[in-house]
Amino acid sequence: MSGGVERFFEHLSARDWESLRGELAPEVERIGPFGDRVAGRDRYLAMLEESVPADYRNDVHRVTYADDGRTAFARVTEHLGYPDRTLHLEEAYAFGLDEVGLVSRIEVFWQTPRYDPAAGSS
Q: What is the C-alpha separation between 55 and 66, in angstroms, rounded?
């Protein structure tokens, strides 16, 4: 059985906002790679719906949970397909989980963008 972080990425990749809602604590806070912050489940989901392109997926390379089960880290390649280019972002995430395992904090660390010239990237 997969944990909450694995399910988070599964629902995010599928753009299944309603299922993703079930993995998020109501007071979830997301801190982006540029220090941008979104607080609250509804605001976070609205931000995702608006910004995540239809051609989107994540390759989750590794998820590690702390012994206390309240912190997790993930290494991910995010793939974003736009009409004029495809981006591949190597990212690291840090997650805080509440007492029932819902995602309460997400910190995204953008590591390195990779462009795919074969897919018409720039």
A: 32
